[in-house]
Design goal:
735 residues, alpha+beta, Arc Repressor Mutant, subunit A, 6 domains, 5-stranded mixed sheet, 5-stranded antiparallel sheet, 24 strands, 45% helix, elongated
């Protein structure tokens, strides 16, 4: 097979699986969708896309890319070995990784780093100057160093690791060794420094490499980079204990998520201007979770990421229709939904401790990548290994050098991630649990782990002190009804619910009759209904509905004349604009809901009715529309679809005819070379309607998204958009 001569030829030689892998590694290349390989190359070689791709490299891949930026174009693996001092297989693996990301093309004996990638490392990659026009030999350097003496060492040490330049007056003057008076003049005289311009000197690349080689065989930095990630070690904990702790945490978070979403169902919270939930509302919700505000914020974020809560009007937060389905799932599936939503969310949940849960401030596109990176590093230690969180920073910095350059921020993110993973049960007692691999590998919870999730119960123990005890997680419908009829006082495996006049009245307000409440309690009580609870239900039933409120704007029907007189005499009557229009009938200019709330504040127990005199029950709960993130398999399918579309479109494009002695080359690199040589090229073009054409052009410049040149036939100045170019033929056209 003929080796590729350009990046475009290299990409055109890829099969669909390899092209899919490119779009998976560099997802930004799929947006906008490239119409052919030429356009894909244009997108892949922009400085923005190259920057994103390089930031995704690990430390070893980045070192190899930096080494290629130091070397001249067309370097070999052996050249790289001279810079990094590592075995050939380690270098070959990194080279292949760079090829898969379209940062590099060519054979191992002719490596070409994409120009934009070379530019990314700046003028002095690894702190080294470009190769000298007339480099000194190692022997000449050693002789010059010996002759210059130790007095020049401080200057050399300052320039050794970059930047390799310094400011000196009249740097370009000729200096003889005998006339040198300062260390810089000595170095210039011995050619260990050379003038870059009138006021700047530079350390030649060969001099810096010779000096670096005296201390290490790794020449790209003061600290060698390992081809493999650092290992995380720690003592082994009891896997049985770890499994039990992780199962307890997983069950707890499922129960707590249901609890706070049910609270939002009963008391919808208003959103702030930044789309977040106010600190006061979060604190109110957290009372059901022992006042843990940070944990409550995390649960709200996780529920939102899982599509269980949302806002139908951007004003209030409500459960979604997806929540109603979620509560019917088995415990392992409910937990997995929360855990995978956390893994893939493009937000930092714990940062909302200082802002507001669900606010736009927490959006962070790199959050899912960083979260996976940290948890994969933890998983590498093995299940049951107790991990020192500080060790994760070193591993994470190797996998993501860009994050390692911000050590303080990295430590904060690792701290957040570890705490959240502990809440989810992915880690427990400082160790990795069996649940973590299931989340990282997109697998269902294994059967042996699923067995640690207890089966939901449909019965509670009702005691004579008006409490009900749940000895484990309850079925969703049972828990929902019990929270309607009683106030939940504690949570977890032994949740306690307390019946009170106010809680029982909620049942009546929702349309339940006394007999229905009693029947439901009999069905779901393992101990029957204690007498005190029966008395409570009957007492509330006798009082409920003695005052009925309707709209006219509002009216009140009161059976007791004394009660009517007391209401009219109360100061609230004036605010509500109450007046009597008939025996037992009052009207109000206030909204019926306002009248009901005011009467309840007076200690009364009114019931609402419609215009036919029928009691109104609670309306069906409002729900926000469901929203779920795309699963990983869908994202992979998207990469496959993009690859297939690009290949199919590229095959339909015509190829420029090859002339005698011409070489087919439609990459930007070759167009830049043509500009340097003022060569004539023939461009294969595609117009806005997909119609192909060709034209000749003597290239002058490539930039600003276009190829600029002169038509050799007419002398006309022409600019051709790069996006329209489907192919290039170099060399003068045949006669």
């Amino acid at each position: 097979m003929t080796p590729a001569r350009t990046l475009t030829e290299a990409l055109r030689a890829l099969d669909q699986d390899q092209l899919t892998e490119l779009f998976r590694l560099r997802p930004d290349l799929g947006y906008p969708l490239p119409r052919h390989i030429g356009e894909l190359v244009s997108q892949a070689t922009t400085s923005v896309s190259i920057g994103r791709a390089i930031e995704a490299l690990n430390a070893w891949q980045l070192a190899i890319a930096g080494g290629l930026a130091v070397l001249a174009d067309g370097a070999t693996i052996d050249d790289l070995r001279g810079l990094v001092g590592r075995p050939r297989p380690a270098i070959s693996g990194a080279i292949e990784d760079l090829r898969r990301r379209a940062l590099l093309w060519g054979t191992d004996a002719d490596l070409h780093l994409v120009r934009a990638a070379r530019d990314h490392f700046g003028s002095y990659p690894a702190g080294l100057a470009p190769p000298s026009p007339h480099p000194l030999t190692d022997r000449q350097i050693d002789t010059a160093l010996a002759a210059a003496g130790d007095q020049v060492r401080p200057v050399l040490d300052r320039l050794l690791w970059g930047p390799p330049t310094g400011t000196v007056r009249n740097a370009d003057r000729t200096i003889r060794v005998a006339d040198a008076r300062t260390p810089v003049e000595l170095l210039l005289a011995h050619r260990l420094l050379r003038p870059l311009d009138r006021d700047t000197v530079i350390m030649p690349q060969e001099v810096a490499l010779r000096l670096r080689s005296a201390t290490s065989d790794y020449l790209l930095g003061p600290e060698p980079v390992s081809p493999a990630a650092p290992m995380i070690t720690g003592r082994a904990a009891s896997r049985t204990v770890i499994r039990s702790a992780s199962a307890g945490a997983a069950n707890e978070i499922v129960h707590d998520a249901e609890l706070i979403i049910s609270d939002l169902d009963a008391h919808p919270r208003r959103l702030l201007r930044d789309s977040g939930i106010s600190t006061r509302d979060v604190q109110a919700i957290s009372r059901a979770l022992d006042g843990r505000v940070d944990y409550t914020g995390f649960l709200l974020e996780a529920a939102s990421a899982a599509g269980l809560i949302g806002s139908p009007d951007r004003i209030t937060v409500l459960p979604t229709t997806e929540f109603d389905r979620w509560v019917t799932l088995p415990g392992p599936d409910r937990w997995l939904r929360l855990a995978t939503a956390w893994r893939d969310a493009d937000r930092y949940f714990s940062s909302t401790v200082e802002s507001h849960p669900l606010s736009a401030e927490a959006v962070a596109p790199r959050a899912p990548d960083n979260r996976r990176l940290i948890m994969n590093a933890a998983a590498s230690a093995g299940v049951g290994t107790v991990i020192n969180v500080d060790d994760l920073a070193e591993v994470t910095a190797w996998h993501r050098p860009s994050a390692g350059r911000h050590a303080q921020q990295l430590a904060v993110v690792i701290g957040w991630t570890w705490q959240e993973a502990t809440w989810l049960g992915l880690t427990a007692l400082g160790a990795v649990t069996d649940l973590l691999p299931a989340v990282l590998d997109d697998r269902p919870v294994p059967d042996d782990l699923a067995g640690l999730f207890p089966e939901p119960l449909d019965r509670v123990i009702i005691q004579s002190d008006l409490t009900a005890i749940a000895q484990g997680p309850l079925e969703a419908a049972v828990a929902s009804t019990l929270r309607l009829l009683a106030d939940q006082e504690s949570r977890g495996g032994g949740a306690v619910y307390r019946f009170s006049p106010g809680s029982v009245r909620r049942g009546f307000d929702s349309g339940w009759a006394a007999a229905e409440i009693s029947d439901w309690l009999i069905r779901h009580s393992a101990t029957g209904i204690p007498q005190p609870l029966r008395y409570l239900i009957d007492d509330v039933a006798r009082q409920h509905g003695t005052v009925r409120v309707g709209g006219a704007a509002s009216y009140l029907r009161i059976e007791d004349p004394a009660q009517q007189a007391a209401i009219l005499a109360h100061p609230e009557a004036a605010r509500l604009q109450l007046r009597s229009i008939a025996p037992g009938v009052l009207v109000s200019g206030a909204d019926p809901e306002e009248v009901v709330q005011a009467l309840r504040g007076l200690g009364l127990k009114p019931a609402a009715e419609d215009d036919q005199g029928r009691l109104l029950t609670t309306r069906p709960p409002r729900r926000a529309g469901s929203r779920r993130p795309d699963p990983p398999e869908r994202r992979q399918a998207a990469a496959e679809e993009i690859a297939a579309a690009v290949l199919a479109a590229d095959r339909r494009l015509p190829r420029p005819p090859a002339g005698a002695g011409a070489s087919v080359d439609d990459g930007l690199e070759s167009l830049r070379r043509a500009a340097e040589r003022a060569e004539v090229v023939r461009l294969g073009l595609v117009d806005g309607n997909g119609r192909p054409s060709t034209r000749e052009l003597r290239v002058q410049r490539v930039g600003d998204g276009a190829v600029h040149g002169v038509d050799p036939g007419t002398g006309e100045t022409v600019s051709v958009p790069i996006a329209r170019i489907s192919g290039v033929l170099l060399g003068d056209p045949p006669n």
